[in-house]
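Ticket #4471: structure export looks truncated?
Reporter: QA, pipeline team
Priority: medium

Steps to reproduce: submit the single chain below to the structure queue and open the exported record.
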Amino acid sequence: MTRAAAPKRRRRWLAPVFSAIYLIALGGALTYHAADELRGNLLNDRGFFGTLRIDLDRGTHGPYLRLRHGRITHGIQFTEPDYRHVPNSYYAGHSGVGLAADHHPRRYRNQPLAIGVIGLGTGTIATYALTGDRIRFYEIDPKVVALSTGDAPLFTYLRDSAGEATVALGDARLSLEREPPQGYDVLVVDAFSSDSIPAHLITVEAIELYLRHLRDDDGVIALHISNRYLDLAPLARGLAQRLDLEIIKVGDSSEDDITWASDWMLLSRSRAVFDVPTVADATEEEDEEERAAPYPVWTDTRSDLLEVLAR
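Actual output as written to the record:
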């Protein structure tokens, strides 16, 4: 044995020791993180897509219940009576869905509105249903439905809605394919805020299905595209272009405990729907680069997340 070989052999035991130390430290960190995530929650449950958590937070308008799935918040409800039924977070009055519902032509004609919503969350959008309106939610996760239904729901937007509120349990697209035309004036697709999005809900065929369920040319499809990692605006424009639809982007940059920053794309067969002054004022203008850019188009046989990664 040479002098150089001996120290090398004696050092071999260090590698597994350092590996063991690293794994112990990593396990401790993960355990602490998991415990910290679960601490203080009013509910921890395993839902269709992962862990559902409800905790109590506080803002300037008082405490509110918050529904989270992973790192994504899917809605809140204030506990104070004065704010309990106020539309909030991504769905506040100046959001895309708020404008689509409050300023739909039927509202100005004092006619009842029919609203469809893909994705229940906490049910906040039910606040836009007035007396005589009907609103129907499509939700795949029975655990989420249970939070807003039954004798003692944690979130009471559906129970307290002035309109007729119903829920269809199951994959939204399959439910809509089975149902006869529902005659919606506003069809909201609120399924794209998570890290992994259901691509089958934002394809040419999906938009064609949504159009079949609109009442008439004044019908609006409202796509909620707020997402940390994906920019779905070009995709929405590509779909509108393919199907010869009018489209606008409504971005609300407000940030307080009532209103959160959000991005929405509104699509319709009729441009007149978007010419209402309040809606027109909230519409984001396209710059030359956006107008010239080639827009991606997804179909049921082709989708590519790389095309919509946020830059």
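Status: closed, not a bug. The export was complete when the record was re-opened. Leaving a note from the reviewer for reference: The longest strand covers residues 51-59.
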